[in-house]
Amino acid sequence: MYIITAKLDEKSQQLLNTLRKEHFPAHLNYLDAHLTLFHQFPEFDFSDPFFKSHLPKRKIEAVFDQIYFTGKGFASELS
Fold first, then answer.
1. Distance (Å, rounded) from C-alpha 50 to C-alpha 18?
2. Torsion on CA atoms 17, 23, 27, 29, rounded to nearest 10
3. Longest distance between any two alpha carbons in the chain, whole Å
């Protein structure tokens, strides 16, 4: 299984890291803030031309609309 994340711009990374340090339990906070796109993505050949042809070719702008508790941590809806 794979976890696929997106790279955040520096400003968003700093803001989310700050929020994470303020609100996430310190004993569980061993990663920087991150944007998970797929959690438990099935085995996949990432060298497959199909996969490479469907990756974004440019930056994608997104807005963090709402932050909510998932039961294990916090998540945000994006638009």
1. 37
2. -20
3. 42
